[in-house]
Amino acid sequence: MVLKRQHIIGESESILMCLEDIAKSAATDISVLITGETGTGKELFARAIHQNSHRSEKEFVIVDCGALPETLVESILFGHEKGAFTGADNRKEGIIAQADGGTLFFDEIGELDPMIQKKLLRTLQEHSLRTVGGRKELPVDFRLVAATNRDLDEMVHENTFREDLLFRIRGIEIRLPPLRQRTEDVPLIAFKKIQQIGARFGLETKGVSAEFMEILRKYDWPGNVRELIHVLEHSIANAGPDPTLVPKHLPPHYRTMLFERDNTDLAECDAISATAACFITDGKLARWADYRFQTEKSYLHALLSECNGSWENACRLSGFGKSRFYELLKKHNLSLEKQSVSPPACFASQNY
């Protein structure tokens, strides 16, 4: 059977290995955990598993764990009976039941509340669920695919994620590589996305200059494929009637960033030296746990200074889910109010 890629673009060795993992996963009903940085395409891979499985004719249901309202999450996932709580005027089916016969995709599963983790584990073990206010178990049959950009093993160590649930969802683990580790795929992705963007806006497909492509290949892409698509959309808009994309069409802050990068070799050497000094405490190399704790706290200070008291802005800038963000604030005894304390110089010198 020919594997349906579901818009997954790339021929690098790392992506081909991930496609092999998709084929293996699709041939079974075992749970799959997809890990990778934000923007690496975890949902695309989840859809590919579904489309290549025997469940492809049934529903592919997405649960965005980071967007579930805390007070309604149990009802949204498991459904509720009439009169189960104030405002429950009718019986309502939950998202999990909607995936019966198909695939249930838990995006950013690390954001789930521990109480919901426990109930999900029971559902996976018993192949049944109980609605809020319900008195009996209802059978349910679905294939679970979960995704996260967090270190679930670390969360288990910190007692914020259940170890037994991690065992259950990690039947097969697919680790998606960041774009900076497969730069040979950048031209393939760029050409395909330029065609798609042009078609979406009713434009002629733009050509790409060698200089423009070289910049795309050299950039680190911290936001991965999602960021690349964003840059291409802006570049095509900036190009207007010009038939070929050239460096001047890049968004202004990218042009500035690239210019600064090409002219700061000496400054980078100084920054490396300053960063190295942060590892030293009383003339000795700091313990990793201590250095990590201080770096994490410094990052939060900088983040709070930028977000202007808005947790939405903080999560957007950092990539944290809401629960993870507040968990870190509590850990470091910080509040959402804008911080006036400047982060240490060694932290500010790093490219976060």
Automatic annotation (TrEMBL):
Residues 8-237 form the Sigma-54 factor interaction domain. GO terms for molecular function: ATP binding; DNA binding. The keyword Transmembrane helix does not apply. Keywords: ATP-binding, DNA-binding, Nucleotide-binding, Transcription, Transcription regulation. InterPro entries: AAA+_ATPase, AAA_lid_NorR, P-loop_NTPase, Sigma_54_int, Sigma_54_int_dom_ATP-bd_1, Sigma_54_int_dom_ATP-bd_2, Sigma_54_int_dom_CS. The keyword Transcription regulation applies. SUPFAM superfamilies: P-loop containing nucleoside triphosphate hydrolases. It holds the Pfam family Sigma54_activat. One of its GO terms (biological process) is regulation of DNA-templated transcription. CDD domains: AAA. PANTHER family: ALGINATE BIOSYNTHESIS TRANSCRIPTIONAL REGULATORY PROTEIN ALGB, TRANSCRIPTIONAL REGULATORY PROTEIN. This is Sigma-54 factor interaction domain-containing protein. The lineage of its organism: Bacteria, Pseudomonadati, Thermodesulfobacteriota, Desulfobacteria, Desulfobacterales.
